[in-house]
From TrEMBL:
Pathway where it operates: Amino-acid biosynthesis; L-arginine biosynthesis; L-arginine from L-ornithine and carbamoyl phosphate: step 1/3
SUPFAM superfamilies assigned to the protein according to its UniProt record, in alphabetical order: Aspartate/ornithine carbamoyltransferase
NCBIfam families registered for this protein in UniProt: orni_carb_tr, PRK00779.1
Domain Aspartate/ornithine carbamoyltransferase Asp/Orn-binding: 154-304
HAMAP family: OTCase
Location of this chain's protein in the cell: Cytoplasm
Binding site for L-ornithine: N165, D225, S229, M230
GO cellular component term of the entry, any: cytoplasm
Name by which UniProt lists this protein: Ornithine carbamoyltransferase
Reaction(s) catalysed (UniProt annotation): carbamoyl phosphate + L-ornithine = L-citrulline + phosphate + H(+)
Alphabetical keyword list: Cytoplasm, Transferase
GO molecular function terms attached to this record: amino acid binding; ornithine carbamoyltransferase activity
Domain Aspartate/ornithine carbamoyltransferase carbamoyl-P binding: 3-147
Classification of source organism: Bacteria, Pseudomonadati, Pseudomonadota, Alphaproteobacteria, Rhodobacterales
Length: 308
């Protein structure tokens, strides 16, 4: 079953094909109204369930619009409103949904929910973010980097801040797409050792650099994310802010990256915390292209899952 559960669980050539297809599909519909159908309708007759157990703006809207552009239909479901949120097992939910829909996207908390859903579904399942990873986001980020600067292979990506779910997917992407990666954040918020090992085993360089200035020096791409993720308890906010304050991406820090470096943030952002507005709205920033590219990257991911 061609699920899209994580970047490191997906074939390198399939990932490359998805990025290339996303780019081609994006340029084929350039300038058209958002609601206009694509020339080809690879999801005609297909029904897609979009399940959210956490809030979302980009994931929700981009999947919905993407399915419609490709001729399919969607239903957006809140986990709380489903029996899933009231004691029905994940396995039974997967079996039932598979009788109604052709594809399931889920945003959830614990990764085990995603994995169990995929185990029991007879239709493909897409990971729309868990506490542990966010692969659709990084596919959009790769697309965005390559649109602006060409192949990401061999480039140097520096992450500043929390070693969170989004960074984990960056580590997976480093392994698959062949770029070097530097993490700069406090020890207490280090990324998962297993994921660092996975990237190193693939032959890419993973550097842990506590000094953000040294970490950003010569970077081709600087990335950050919120200091408090949706799965983090609000009670940890003050501690997290104290730990992460020194890793803010501001103009002074960006000045250490390569002159043509890009800045990315998956959004939503807390302006003035993990990054300043001067950087987010500045010349290096491609944050809104990144957001747009969720749409195009996910259209290719859905076609991969459905084999269309
Ligand atoms: N970047 C991202 O996944 O945004 P949403 O939480 O709005 O979906
Ligand atoms: N790390 C963030 C990403 C949001 C898209 C979170 O999990 O809340």
């Amino acid at each position: 079953m061609p699920h899209f559960l994580d970047i490191h669980k997906t074939d390198t050539s399939a990932l490359r094909d998805m990025i290339d297809q996303a780019r081609a599909m994006k340029s084929a519909r350039a300038g058209r109204p958002k609601g206009a159908p694509d020339d080809t309708q690879p999801l005609a007759g297909q029904m897609v369930a979009l399940i959210f157990e956490k809030p979302s703006t980009r994931t929700r809207v981009s999947f919905d619009v993407g399915v419609r552009q490709m001729g399919g239909q969607t239903m957006v479901l809140s986990g709380n409103d489903m029996q899933l949120g009231h004691g029905e097992t994940i396995a039974d939910t997967a079996r039932v949904l598979s009788r109604y829909v052709d594809l399931i996207m889920i945003r959830t908390f614990d990764e085990s929910v995603l994995l169990e859903l995929a185990d029991h579904a007879t239709v493909p399942v897409i990971n729309g973010l868990t506490d542990r990873t966010h692969p659709c986001q990084i596919m959009a980020d790769i697309l965005t980097y390559e649109e602006h600067r060409g192949p990401i292979r061999g480039r140097r990506v520096t992450w500043c801040g929390d070693g969170n779910n989004v960074f984990s997917s960056f580590l997976h992407a480093a392994a698959r797409f062949g770029f070097d990666i530097t993490f700069s954040g406090p020890t207490a918020l280090d990324p998962e050792d297993d994921f660092i090992g996975l990237a190193r085993d693939a032959g890419v360089s993973v550097t842990i650099e506590r000094d953000p200035v040294a970490a950003v020096e010569g970077a081709d791409l600087v990335v950050t994310d919120t200091w408090v993720s949706m799965h983090d308890s609000q009670s940890t906010k003050e501690r997290r802010h104290n730990l992460l304050r020194g890793y803010q991406v501001n103009e002074a820090l960006m000045a250490h990256a390569k002159p043509d470096a890009l800045f990315m943030h998956c959004l939503p952002a807390h302006r003035g915390e993990e990054a300043t507005s001067a950087v987010m709205d500045g010349p290096h920033s491609v944050i809104f292209d990144e957001a747009e590219n969720r749409l195009h990257a996910q259209k290719a991911i859905m076609r991969y899952c459905l084999g269309t």
